[in-house]
């Protein structure tokens, strides 16, 4: 059971550490301000004096025992230990604002990261010889029921888990950027720190990478990937779905040529929807780590829906019209050319015409 008693020595050490120039008088005044005085005092000397006065019949008004009812009111008005702890915590926050901010951010981002890391988590199953199945590139394959593996067909491996976790961490990073400028960097740093701790633990426990130098090298590579993901997804967030789809294709689908366009569009739709939804959450929910992600399968109906623009006539304007006219002239000249010299002359003629 935790004690409610506040150690005066610890308090003095904290204050002196944060402000070395604080005088002893300041410490005594702060101690009197923070720590409440006792409501009553049990003193043997005073009790004996009172008994002697009662025996002699010379009890004064100051020596008379207090009325029990009045004493009860006094105890009722006295601050409780719970309120004392709250006052002490509030005072410490004022004195050590940067320290308490770091602890709060560390605890909240730990909860936020756990939500991100659980989206595509997996487990390595080894045989009696301690071996696990591997991909063609040598990655160990695990087992998981996650949508990212079952429905999208992604390889259940460490790199896939890292990329899916990065995607959800990016969603939270976009929301954390809305924090005041003096707080946001601390929260972002703690979020990536929690990923590093979990990634190293997964390397050691799931993949039996016992060498600390190898784990450190992998962590550096992951951090470089994270910086690249921030730039790629930020660009897609600004320039549109086509650029975002290219970033998702490179990172989540590893640039595979046989990727299903529906799967790619589903991830892009899910990413944008979650950024909008999490961005609308209050600061209190984010600060308390109360964040959950939606189900990507709900995006399928929106992705497969045929757009009305697909039936609309295509109109070329601006640079696109000029480019189309260029290739039209090129095909006409090419059809009238039967040798290489004529082909080169056709190129020159077309380029001169377009330049004019």
Characterization of the model:
With 356 residues, this protein is an all-alpha fold. It folds into three domains: 8-36 and 43-94, no CATH class; 102-310, no CATH class; 319-355. 64% of the residues lie in helices and 0% in strands. The radius of gyration is 35 Å and the shape is globular. Mean pLDDT is 76; it is low at 1-6, 26-44, 68-76 and 336-356. Residues 51-78 are annotated as: Disordered. Belongs to the CBP3 family. This is V-type proton ATPase subunit a. Residues 151-291 form the Ubiquinol-cytochrome c chaperone domain.
What secondary-structure arrangement, pairings included, does this model have?
Elements: H1 8-18, H2 24-34, H3 44-56, H4 68-77, H5 81-95, H6 97-117, H7 147-150, H8 158-176, H9 184-205, H10 212-239, H11 241-251, H12 261-279, H13 283-287, H14 300-304, H15 319-335, H16 340-355
Protein name: V-type proton ATPase subunit a
Region (Disordered): 51-78
Domain Ubiquinol-cytochrome c chaperone: 151-291
Low-confidence stretches: 1-6, 26-44, 68-76, 336-356
Strand content: under 5%
Helical residues, percent: 55-70%
| Average pLDDT | 76
Main sheet? none
- Total individual domains: 3
Rough outline = globular
Q: What structural class do the secondary elements suggest?
A: mainly alpha
Total number of helical segments?
A: 16
Please trace the helix and strand order, writing H or E for each element. HHHHHHHHHHHHHHHH
Q: Count the strands?
A: 0
